[in-house]
Predict the structure.
Amino acid sequence: MVNIFIQVKVKDFVEWKKVFDSAAGLRTSNGGSTYQVFRDASDPNTITTINKWNSLENAQKFARSPELKAAMEKAGVMGPPTVYFLNEA
């Protein structure tokens, strides 16, 4: 298993969350399983997600996908995300 850490700044958390939830099938069809969502304590429109994936290859493919880019635009993501691929130690 590998994890993707993604941090973004959004216009509106509620709107972002609706799109994030509606994209569950996109994540699972690309090898994603569980996820966690965090809001920054000092800026609730800065969102961090940690998503588990079945392989690094699938996680990287998802991160580069045009479907993810479109979902992020629809969700009101402001600017490029910060993305890390992590292996559990």
